[in-house]
Amino acid sequence: MDKLRRVLSGQEENEELGLTAQVLDASSLSYSTRVKWFVICFAGGILCSILGSALLFLPHGIKLFAVFYTLGNIAALASTCFLMGPLKQLKRMFEPTRLIATIVMLLCLVLTLCAAFWWHKNGLAIIFCILQFLAMTWYSISYIPFARDAVMKCFTTCLS
Length: 160
Prior knowledge:
- By secondary structure, this protein is mainly alpha-helical.
- It has 8 helices and no strands.
- The chain has helices spanning 2-9, 11-24, 31-55, 61-84, 86-93, 99-117, 122-141, 147-159.
- It starts with a helix and ends with a helix.
């Protein structure tokens, strides 16, 4: 009888999906909830980045800067998972048009932390943070139609 109730109420289908599929399913959240969590996560990412920049001027602040700036970028990137869902986000990140920007961005996230903690190269950590910013910007504008072309044309015009 319990199984019949679950089938009629639609719960049976969710159990067959498994826990992972239920967690990764973005449609389980309402639109307003997804937008609220996007804003919270994105604002938290910006706050971490600003905090990291402020901590840069403290003694041994380069490590704090690298951690907070990287966490801020990860939070900003993860915030879009609330809008489109984690699986769709991952699929879109690795589409051919975004593949290079995604790889450079993820590589710079890791290399920033390596430069600050393992290699103890402060200048290199700052360079990787700048590259993080540039890669994240290039990745972000890939979602705006023709934005990359406009940026390329603008730089080409300015440099020639």
